[in-house]
Design goal:
Layout: E1 11-15, H1 23-33, E2 37-42, H2 45-59, E3 63-67, H3 73-86, E4 90-95, H4 110-138, E5 141-146, H5 149-153, H6 161-181, E6 186-193, H7 207-214, H8 225-236, E7 247-250
Parallel strand pairs: 1-2, 1-4, 2-3, 4-5, 5-6, 6-7
């Protein structure tokens, strides 16, 4: 039993972390610089491996890309099995894989609805379940899922009902799971970003669109992936062991809870 002591050799599994402008890549880069070994799981096999190679070279750390579709159980099982055979014990999991959809509700097809939930919710379930037994055995784990201010405000940013509903589901997932696994030395938290300059907001943002998205906040700008990554890295670290079942807002004051 680990009893909460962080091992020197430890792995963080990050889903959806291959996007060049995403929160996941920023987090992988930060964790590699902090001494973690990192497993990047992403649907894009080439981007996954190249991202891992670039970050590993930058920090002299071990970062490995494992192609996976988080919505498919066999794909998740194969990827995590490879992680467990090649890297140190998995101490942290970041559920960052997600897709958005700006379609108005009455135009949303069942296929669109189910695809958003398959990636954003089923994916978090499958990957979390797969790594959890090892965390329980070692009595140590940090799980952080990326929700959204859209879950709290009912949209109002870029995506609409399917995305907001799926991200709200992650908040319930986080709180309920935290209750079940807290006795095993595992914390489960969520972060709820506001508008962040990533491709999930519909691609590279123009200055005009940035200004529009920042208008409802208090700090006069939108956020950056590195700012969200810093928060997640803290929640994954040794100093966050007394924080669980929490949702951390990082939205520039767009939503005041």
């Amino acid at each position: 039993m680990n009893s909460g002591i962080f091992p020197a050799d430890r792995t963080a599994v990050l889903t959806g972390a291959a996007s060049p402008r995403g929160i996941g890549r920023a987090l992988a880069d930060r964790l590699a610089g902090e001494g973690w070994e990192v497993a990047i799981l992403d649907l894009d096999a080439d981007a996954c491996r190249q991202t891992a190679k670039d970050i590993a070279a930058r920090h002299g750390a071990r970062v490995v890309g494992f192609p996976a579709d988080v919505s498919v159980e066999k794909s998740v099982d194969a990827a995590i099995a490879a992680v467990e055979s090649q890297l140190p014990p998995v101490v942290a999991l970041g559920n960052l894989a997600g897709i958005s959809d700006p379609t108005p509700f009455l135009e949303v097809t069942l296929e669109q609805w189910e695809r958003v939930f398959a990636v954003n919710v089923r994916g978090a379930f499958l990957v979390t379940r797969r790594v959890l037994r090892g965390m329980i055995d070692r009595h140590l784990g940090r799980i952080v899922s990326v929700s959204s201010v859209s879950a709290q405000r009912g949209g109002g940013t870029y995506s609409k009902v399917p995305y907001s509903a799926s991200k709200a589901a992650l908040l319930g997932f986080t709180r309920a799971l935290a209750r079940e696994v807290g006795e095993h030395g595992i914390t489960v938290n969520a972060v709820a970003p506001g508008p962040i300059d990533t491709d999930i907001m519909g691609g590279t943002l123009t200055d005009e669109r940035r200004a529009q998205m920042a208008a409802g906040g208090l700090v006069g700008r939108i956020g950056t992936p590195t700012e969200v990554a810093a928060l997640i890295a803290f929640l994954m670290g040794p100093d966050a062991g007394f924080i669980t079942a929490a949702t951390y807002d990082i939205n520039g004051g767009l939503q005041i809870s």
